[in-house]
UniProtKB/TrEMBL annotation:
It comes from the Bacteria. The keyword Transport does not apply. InterPro entries: Cro/C1-type_HTH, Cupin_2, Lambda_DNA-bd_dom_sf, RmlC-like_jellyroll, RmlC_Cupin_sf, TransReg_Diox_bact_type. GO terms for molecular function: DNA binding; DNA-binding transcription factor activity. GO terms for cellular component: cytosol. This is XRE family transcriptional regulator. Residues 11-65 form the HTH cro/C1-type domain. It holds the Pfam family Cupin_2. It comes from Fictibacillus marinisediminis. The keyword Nucleus does not apply.
Length: 182
């Protein structure tokens, strides 16, 4: 089953668990009814931004759309994980370890291609992001604070307001991102 089908099946199940119509879901998430319907049918390739809007509106983690059952041991090769891209295709997110029951975090590999400028909405009260720069130089703005982070540098911040990731270099930037939910 491809990633779009997994996302669609999970969205439909979450909406069903809440007994929400497409209209109620659209109002809660800010994503149109036609787009939600296309996602549920696996006919749309939702962007990172769209999935964040839906996750925030439903009060679930981003990764809750990506996997249902977690094995006791999971080995992941980042290159084998299908990325989810933003609208312009320069912000690529690969879910490595989606949130599991009883765990309050999820881990991603993120690649920012040259020229990437990605604005992330608030993830909710108390949510924290941990960023580990693996390759390149990441420009990050968090609540009007600006940071330049090189490979080997790391940062943690409260993600309950807008934050911006940028690659102002000519080479890709690769980061590992952990999101913690209290």
């Amino acid at each position: 089953m491809n990633l779009n089908e997994v996302i669609g099946r999970r969205l439909k199940a979450m909406r069903g668990q809440r007994n929400w119509s497409l209209e109620k879901t659209a109002n809660a998430t800010g994503v149109s009814k036609p787009m939600l319907s296309q996602i549920e049918r696996g006919e749309s390739n939702p962007t990172v931004s769209t999935l964040w809007k839906i996750a925030n509106g439903l009060g679930v983690s981003f990764s809750s759309f990506l996997e249902e059952d977690q094995p006791a041991i999971k080995k992941v090769n980042t290159a084998d994980v299908e990325p989810i891209a933003d609208k312009d295709g320069t912000f690529l997110v690969r879910p490595l370890f989606p949130m599991e029951p009883g765990k309050s975090f999820e881990i991603y590999s993120v690649e920012l291609l040259p020229g990437c400028h990605y604005t992330s909405e608030s993830h909710g009260d108390g949510v924290e992001e941990y960023i580990l720069v693996e390759k390149g130089c990441l420009s990050l703005t968090v609540h009007q604070n600006y940071f330049n982070l090189s490979a080997g540098e790391n940062i943690r911040f409260a993600a309950d307001y807008v934050h911006v990731y940028e690659n102002q270099e000519n080479d890709p930037v690769r980061i590992t991102m952990m999101i913690y939910y209290p």
